[in-house]
Amino acid sequence: MPATKPLYDLVLMLDTTAEDSRRQEIVASAEAIVAAGGEVVNKQDWGPRQMAFEIRHKKDADYHLLQFHATAEVLERLDRQLRIVDEVVRYRIVKLAPGTPPPVEQRAEPRPASVTVDAPADDTAAEAAEPVAVDAPAEAEAAPAEAVADTEPADAEPAAAPAGD
Asked: Which CATH number fits domain 7-95: 3.40.50.1100, 3.30.70.60, 3.60.150.10, 3.30.70.141?
């Protein structure tokens, strides 16, 4: 029999159309169930995020992470409670293996929608970023642009004389 209770992760995905007070009530209820027979170790509010696929015609959910130590009885109560609450889009309880690193703290600001590359701030970085023509022959660089435009191929026929006279 292990000396310590196992560590669990509970990820809650709540309906974003539900009122904020109702969502907080659901999270507080889950914490109370855990606290009655175990110990809450870590709690994180990840906020609303877009889901990878629609669940019950919903495209986003309010994510919460709860890490805790608990017994099998607590897990059963928690599972039953979360199944009957309508505002719970989905949840998952996972038993963590010993030595699993803690979750990464979430950023205060949301992730950008698209990643853009900004222009370099200094001139040395800008020079390094300019494209360099590798296959260009040396004569093409030395010839003026007008000379290249005025040349015609040797086998080209002369232009036709204007009709009339």
From this structure: 3.30.70.60
